[in-house]
Amino acid sequence: MELINMTLHTLFLIMMLNLSLQHKHLMLTLMCIEAMMLILLMMLIIFTTTTQTISQTPMPFILLTISVCGASIGLTLVVAITRTHGNDFLKNLNLL
Fold first, then answer.
1. Membrane-spanning regions, if any (predicted)?
2. Phi and psi, residue 58, nearest 5°
3. What CATH number does the domain containing 81 carry?
4. Cβ–Cβ < 8 Å for 88, 78
5. Long-range contacts made by residues 48-52, C-beta under 8 angstroms, separation at least 24?
6. 2-32 confidence digits (pLDDT tens)
7. Residues 18, 19, 20, 26: what is their CA dihedral angle, to the nearest 10 degrees?
8. Which domain holds residue 77?
């Protein structure tokens, strides 16, 4: 169990590093965020199964629901930006 926790923490840190280094495409940035959410979901599922508390049982489902909503909004933004600008390069967007 400790190996799984260490692996998930390492994967989360790698995704955070990848997110900070990803400066080209919006889609790759959103994929890094989605991978981080899936890693958090796995950590939360492991935590709730090991503690066996009834009050924390719906938390993975709530996190998964919020993650799906965020992914759909992100995909909508990618489609809208691609239609207006022709690509999803982050350097072409004026974020100010």
1. 28-47, 59-81
2. -80, -5
3. 1.10.287.3510
4. yes
5. 50/1
6. 899 999 999 999 999 998 887 788 888 899 9
7. 120
8. 2-92
Q: Is the pTM of this model over 0.90?
A: no
**Domain total of the chain:** 1
Question: Taking the alpha carbons of 80, 85, 89, 90 in that order, is the dihedral positive or negative?
Answer: negative
Q: How many CA atoms lie within 13 A of 28 on its CB side?
A: 14
Instruction: Give the pLDDT confidence of 48-94 residue by residue, as tens digits.
Output: 888 887 777 888 899 999 999 999 999 998 899 889 888 888 777 76
> At a CB cut-off of 8 Å and minimum separation 6, what does 48 contact?
56, 57, 59, 60
The residue type of 32 is C
Look up residue 50 and give its amino acid.
Answer: T
| CA–CA separation, 90 and 8 (whole Å) | 29
In sequence order, the β-bridge partners of residue 25 are 89
